[in-house]
Amino acid sequence: MRLARPVLPPLASELLARCRFPPCGSPVSCAVSGGPDSLALLALAVASGCAVTAFHVDHGLRPGSGDEARIVAAQAAALGADFVARFAPCTPGPNLEARARAARFGALPEDVATGHTADDQAETIVLNLLRGSGIDGLCAMTPGARHPILGLRRAETERLARSLGLPIVRDPTNTAPEHRRNRVRAEVLPLLCEVAQRDLVGVLARQAGLLAGERALLDRLAAQIDASSAPALAAADPALARRALRRHLREELELDHPLELAAIERALSVARGEVAACELPGGARLSRSRGRLRVERPDR
Fold first, then answer.
1. Which residues are CB-neighbours of 106 under 8 A, at least 6 positions away?
2. pLDDT of 250-269, one tens digit each?
3. 288 and 208 within one domain
4. 82-117: b (≥16 Cβ within 10 Å) or e
5. Residue 133, phi then psi, degrees to nearest 5
6. Closest CA to 55 of 41, 158, 19, 64
7. Which residues contact residue 94 at a Cβ distance below 8 angstroms, ignoring those fewer than 6 apart?
8. Strands 82-87 and 277-280, how do they pair?
């Protein structure tokens, strides 16, 4: 039984004006670890008038991690939200951060809202730049129902969480230097701000917004190209051809991530008639016949 909404501090109303929650009464699932960002997400979702359910995922990586679910359950009850606990075990080892993230989102609803802030957005942009990402990576996260508090700063969510007077769960992995994001947060971004002599978080977030608009334009133009037609791809502007082909191959191969540039360039060589066929990730093969591109998958 959902409780009546509590009276939240005035700060919640101030921050809520910069959030992007769905209309009052809409069901909203929130990923809540018990940290200040996710706790602020939960409180603001309740303040927006949505029907909120807090989801907590335990990976079993730390002693006493099961106690955190009980803390979050109490937080949800105090704020007037429903609560669901999920267990998605992970074992220590290589790529732990990526594996835990995949397990976490596999256990959460597809439309779950997360407590990512503008600071997380800036970190993601820098990380994607270090990986050599194109425009999609530099757009980072999209403000909206999945990331409703992306317009807030981490210091603001911390302040709201403290004003609520609820226990805050601190995850020690958020400061562990072996994780690249933590080094970007603690070392790289502060140094960039020092060199620029300004706070770059807002600058990077605005850049992501501008690039998102340009990405949308490119997507509309690329959608007009028949990406299975070799002549159409060969005649198109290279930037649009790459974009159309990347989307087409991602759908054909049923990938959850875009293909890297090297694979796209190999595919374009097939479209241009420079080679007869090429290998694609996962053992797939792309060939050209009578002006059409054909994707052959080993599982078909």
1. 88
2. 999 988 777 888 999 999 99
3. no
4. bbbbbebebeeeeebeeebeebbeebbbeebbbbbb
5. -65, 155
6. 41
7. none
8. unpaired
Q: Which long-range contacts (CB under 8 A, 24 or more apart) does 96-103 make?
A: 96/61, 97/173, 97/179, 97/181, 100/59, 100/61, 103/57, 103/59
Phi-psi region of 268 (alpha: psi -120 to 50; beta: other; left: phi over 0): alpha
Q: Tell me the pLDDT tens digit for each residue of 192-218.
A: 999 999 999 999 999 999 999 999 999
**Residue whose C-alpha is closest to residue 59's, from 33, 39, 41:** 33
Structural domain span for residue 251: 226-296
Same domain (yes/no): 17, 81: yes
Helices 36-47 and 65-79 meet at what angle, rounded to 10?
A: 20
Residues 63 and 160 in one domain: yes
pLDDT at residue 4 tops 70: no
Q: How many CA atoms lie within 13 A of 199 on its CB side?
A: 7
Burial of 185 (0-12, 13-18, 19+ CB in 10 A): buried
Q: Strand, helix or coil at 42?
A: helix
Q: Compute the distance between CA of residue 144 and CA of residue 112 in angstroms, rounded to an integer.
A: 11
Q: Name the pTM for this structure.
A: 0.86
Do 42 and 162 lie in one domain? The reply is yes
Which H or E run includes 125? helix 118-130
- From residue 168, give the alpha-carbon distance in Å to each of 22, 39, 179, 199: 26, 8, 22, 27
**Distance, CA of 137 to CA of 165 (rounded, Å):** 37
Given a cut of 50, is residue 1 above it in pLDDT? no
Question: Which pLDDT band holds residue 73 (cuts at 50, 70, 90)?
Answer: very high
Cα separation of 283 and 165, whole Å?
54
Q: HSE (CB half, 13 Å, CA atoms) of 96?
A: 15
- Number of structural domains found in the chain: 3
- Contact status, residue 40 vs residue 157, Cβ threshold 8 Å: yes
* Residues 33, 255: Cα–Cα separation, whole Å: 28
